[in-house]
Amino acid sequence: MPDGPAAPQDSDEEPAHTSSDQDVTPLSPEEESASQGSSILDSVWRFTRELVVLVVVSVLIAAVIKALLFQVFYIPSGSMEQTLLVGDRVAVDKMSYRFRDVERGEIIVFRGPDSWVPGVPEPSGPGAAVGNWLRGLVGLPTDDRDFIKRVVGLGGDTVACCDAEGRVTVNGQPLDEDYVYENSDIENRDFGPVVVPEGRLFVLGDHRALSADSRYHLTDGDNGTVPEDNVIGRAFAVIWPVDHWSRLRVPATFTSVPDPEASPQTEPSQTEESPVPAVVE
Q: Which residues does the annotation mark as catalytic?
């Protein structure tokens, strides 16, 4: 019979350990610093990448809007006072004229014909083009070839000044231009009659005594008119400064102008005999 309790037997097996029993080796200060630096760099890279994508997308959207829909223009001179003041920014609709014709009384932005900007070259080189594009994107002055005036005569219209009251007439109908500021002196006001060629526009500034408009270019050829193809768009609102916000509407006086075929046509005088009013830029 057994003399006593059995003695424990030796075993080569190691005791089992759980994961909680295992030791975790802490990171050295150098390793911890490197890990934190890598995390910061990753965050900065993600932020930079997202910012670049956002900027590129925003610029592309703005470029499409500027090219096809709307553009902001800066008013650099007083030729359209008091309708537009120096420093105003106007919103220009570039889409409407793709679907309809220009109408009398509208304010348009257009590229000046070469005779309007003698000695002013087109911007050349990629740097000048990009600079102009970026300035135009935010409504800053671009170059000296863009003009803003009011359309008074369309192709086929006869425009003249003056009637007995010193008013401009279109197809024999006098215009009551209450928007005109500081008209030219009566002795310098006469011009025409001018028959506007088809596909061209006769334009005037609202600040008549200061505007170098179609009257000033009567002897340049085409009776001082502007090609419709040069029109960039219609200015429809002043958007800056805030206290000058306004819609740019067509004055009611233009609704009474008859079509050219419904009015008696007067043979235009020779352009060299048409007195040019004393107008400065």
A: 79, 149
